[in-house]
Design brief:
Blueprint (H helix, E strand, L loop, with lengths): L1 E3 L7 E6 L3 H12 L4 E7 L2 H10 L4 E5 L7 H10 L6 E5 L3 H12 L4 E4 L4 H4 L2 H15 L14 H16 L9 E7 L3 H5 L14 E5 L5 H12 L3 E4 L10 E4 L5 E7 L2 E7 L11 H7 L7 E6 L8 H8 L3 E7 L9 H6 L6 E3 L4 H9 L3
Helix pairs in contact: 2-3, 4-9, 10-11
Length: about 375
């Protein structure tokens, strides 16, 4: 099913792909209500979308997962196989299966996703409306597409590089003595970026790693499970009361704010339920600010790709009471150069590095056991 509309030159051209007539109409109404965008084509399934993408160029594609003939995952695979570039935003369900499929879609080059509520009433609400348009804007302005500019390093090669670095670090004295922690923030493009960082961290890392990735509840567990299968370092969705341990990566649960508190001299995860901050929940600012009263001697703050400025205020506040070392992803390798740009503008950044070098710098700054 193909539906063509007149194209406006000054608006971003959007292709909407969904097998539900109602869902397509609702999403098209949202997109066309914003003067930045215009839906120029619609497709009923992946096969119809594939035919359109072979012939036309779009600024953004809104793609459903479950469709007849060819689903969203199959379409993404076809686009990669045929080297057809597109900036894709997935429309995903919040079921466990839906979250796992979303992680696969992000692996296959989708830039971000919108959580599609099961109840149509919520689709008409202001929260969904605003989140949809904000996410779409990030996707269409992304520096990257579904086609990887640089091939991913094979896992065996990753492990070899990490082991070499571990051996080097073991021979050198740490720059800062005392307990350290890594606190990382990311948003749009983050799940894919984390696959270039977390699997490169050794299980012997001499610090716990805290990660705030902007995602709804349910999706963060699938992200943690995915990263855990790819990594030697242990990765988990942080649970209330978790005691931070070296060599463990803790990903903040979606829909709550992750904090670190001290109990009996130990650093412990505590969730709070304040409203969104910087428009997001979880918000990395809470994580960074909670570390002000921790017992850590140094906090290595890492800011990766993402829209907005989350993390900046938290790191600025953290600097007033703690020794910090700040690593920011560079513009060239960021899907969206918002969060790294914001922290770099403060002058607090110690290193601006390409994505592939982030893990190395983390290891060099915290050491190994």
């Amino acid at each position: 099913m193909l539906i063509n509309t007149n194209i406006s030159n000054n608006k971003k051209k959007i292709l909407v792909v969904d097998d539900s007539t109602l869902m397509r109409r609702l999403m098209c109404d949202i997109i066309n209500s914003d003067n930045r965008f215009q839906v120029v084509d619609q497709a009923f399934d992946g096969d119809a979308a594939y035919q359109l993408l072979k012939k036309n160029q779009y600024d953004g594609v809104v793609l459903d997962v479950n469709m007849p003939k060819m689903n969203g995952i199959q379409l993404l695979r076809m686009l990669q196989k045929d080297k057809i570039r597109a900036r894709v935003m997935m429309a995903s369900t919040d079921t466990k299966e839906g979250a796992a499929v979303t992680m696969e879609a992000l692996d296959l080059g989708a830039i971000d996703f919108i959580e599609k509520p099961a109840n149509v009433v919520y689709l008409k609400g202001s929260e969904f409306y605003n989140n949809f348009l904000e996410t779409l804007q990030a996707v269409v302005t992304s520096r990257q597409t579904n086609i990887q500019a640089v091939p991913l390093i094979p896992r065996a090669k990753q492990e070899e590089q990490t082991q070499k670095l571990v051996n080097i670090v073991r021979k050198s004295a740490p720059v800062v003595t005392g307990q350290k922690v890594v606190a990382l923030a990311c948003s749009t493009g983050g799940p894919k970026a984390l696959q270039s960082v977390v699997p490169m961290l050794p299980a012997e890392l001499a610090a716990p790693v805290l990660i705030v990735q902007h995602m709804p509840k349910g999706f963060t567990q699938s992200l943690a499970e995915r990263l855990n299968t790819l990594s030697k370092i242990r990765v988990k969705e942080a649970a209330e009361g978790d005691v931070l341990e070296n060599g463990v990566v803790y990903i903040s649960m979606g829909g709550k704010h992750m904090n670190v508190v001290t109990k009996g001299g130990r650093a412990v995860i505590k969730y709070t339920d304040e409203p969104p901050r910087e428009g997001v929940k979880p918000c990395a600012n809470y994580m960074y600010e909670s570390l002000q009263t921790s017992n850590f001697a140094q906090i290595v703050c890492v800011v990766l790709t993402g829209m907005g400025a989350d993390g900046t205020k938290g790191i600025v506040n953290l600097k007033t009471s703690k020794k910090i070392h700040v690593i920011a992803q560079n513009e060239a390798t960021s899907t969206v150069y918002g969060m790294p740009k914001a922290i770099t503008a403060t002058g607090l950044v110690n290193q601006v590095v390409a994505l592939d070098d982030v893990a190395q710098e983390i290891i060099m700054n915290v050491g190994v056991r």
